[in-house]
Amino acid sequence: MEPISSIDIMEISDTASIPHFINKNGPMAVALDVTNACNFHCLHCFNNSGLKRNNELSNEEILDVARQIAEFNCITVCLCGGEPMSRSNIFEVIECISNKTGYLNMVSNGSLISKAVASNLKKSGLYLLQISLDGINSMQHDTLRGHEGAFIKAVSAIEYAKEAGLKTITSFAPNRLNYRTIDKYIDFCFKLGVSEVRAMPMIPMGRGGKLGPLTMNSEEYIEFQQVFRTKKREYQGKGLMLEWGDPIDHYIRMPNNDRLGMKTYCMEIKSDGSLTVSTYLPIIVGNVRNHSLKEYWDNGYDTIWGNTQIQGYIKKIQNIYDFDEFEPKPYSDEVIDLDLLDRP
Question: What is the pLDDT of residue 115?
């Protein structure tokens, strides 16, 4: 899975076209990991995607979750992973959600998206496709992705998606292989016709905690940011947005929203049915196998960022390096169980 927060990949680009049926009694957004399976073994994968989890939701269960999500009438839903295209009934999931959601988006490495697949994604109701693209050549991209030919497949997927009429964006993980060519990368994406480039630091957890010499230092990040901001100004008004994602931002923003009386913005569901608060912390607050999403929403998830136990944990995270010090380790077998309905 790409190191982009599910809270940050919600696409709301045209508020005037948001459907009138949006439900005010549920989350505005949902992020659903449809599977942990992935055909790549990316060096920086923070959630250790690869093998399908032994306790993953079945096809029937994932469709039931999709129906529950649809009943929320969200503004936006993101299908994440793993590689979502690895889920054998992904088109059924998309069709189930799309008619009752403003914008349905998906994150993918692009390797399983042919011209026909892109067309079917569009026909099924997908609105936006985010393709992971970490460089301007195979050396940069394939090295990080651990898969020969990944660069060519990602670029082809972008071209197929554009041809099919899908809004298409890229995600970029800066590292010592690629950060000095970010200006050329942005120009390349503009020529490909993508709508947005989203970049975010690599998270030091999962395989991302073992990158060693590929990890940038503070000075290199500053150098990267200076060029990124310059290019953002250059492309302003030209149809290409450049966004830097801060993985810590929602730990500040969401509790503040709660204090202002705002409901929880996004609900996150993992491939085993677990409900989480943040994709970066091993905190579980329920499971769809035990109760419905609506039951959890009505019994504390709607104000989860005001939960004092949750706040106690998130206050431990002041920068991305704190993730590596957090106990229990995120994406290990140990979790913090704060189930809202079935306390241990």
Answer: 98
pTM: 0.92
pLDDT at position 180 over 70: yes
| Domain coverage including residue 141 | 1-344
Number of domains in the chain: 1
Alpha helices in 147-248 (DSSP H): 150-164, 182-192, 218-235
The sheet that has 196-199: what strands, in order across it? 241-244, 196-199, 167-172, 128-132, 103-108, 76-80, 29-33, 266-269, 274-276, 283-287, 336-337
CA distance 240 to 187: 10
CATH code (residue 104): 3.20.20.70
- pLDDT per residue over 251-261, tens digit each? 999 999 999 99
Q: How buried is 88 (Cβ within 10 angstroms: 0-12 exposed, 13-18 middle, 19+ buried)?
A: exposed
Q: Characterise 221 by phi-psi region: left (phi > 0), alpha (psi -120 to 50), beta (else).
A: alpha
What residues have CB less than 8 Å from 80, skipping those under 6 apart? Answer: 1, 6, 9, 31, 32, 33, 34, 106, 107
* CA–CA distance, 247 with 285 (Å, rounded to integer): 20
Please, which residues have CB within 8 angstroms of residue 26's CB and are 6 or more apart in sequence? 71, 72, 73, 74, 294, 297
The set of long-range contacts for 212-216, using a CB threshold of 8 Å and a minimum separation of 24, is: 213/176, 214/43, 214/44, 214/144, 214/175, 214/176, 214/177, 215/175, 215/176, 216/174, 216/175, 216/176, 216/179
pLDDT digits (tens, 9 = 90+) for 149-175: 999 999 999 999 999 999 999 999 999
- pLDDT of res. 344: 62
d(CA 98, CA 66): 10
